[in-house]
Amino acid sequence: MQELRVGGHACQFRKGEFLMFTWFKHRAMDRELTQILDEHERVRGDAAMIRDFLLRVLADNRDGVEKFSDEALEEAAAIIDQVGPGAFYWMTDIAAQMVTLSESTLRGFSTNVSVELGATATEDSIVEMVVRLP
Hints:
2 strands; 74% helix
């Protein structure tokens, strides 16, 4: 018999039982870590989809593509179906950040975006700066 102290309590195990307990504990921790990493990867993928759609809309505007085209609306619907209301909220939050950046610039204040990108900033580089993926 072996003794293991857990939180001030002594637990006795036969060597094989202790190894089995340790194995189960490690498997549970591995499963939890895998779930956390999978969730992070899903959120990152969702964020990338939203950012890429925003970049697409900017490119469409720049290239004179029809606004609210069936293709664009279908892509937007697919994103909302996958991500849910969070997609709409996040796009609105990005728009609010862009308004704040514009207001700051109009009032003569510098922002982290203007400092980092300077006069060479493009629409795409601003989006990449504002929409940083987790």
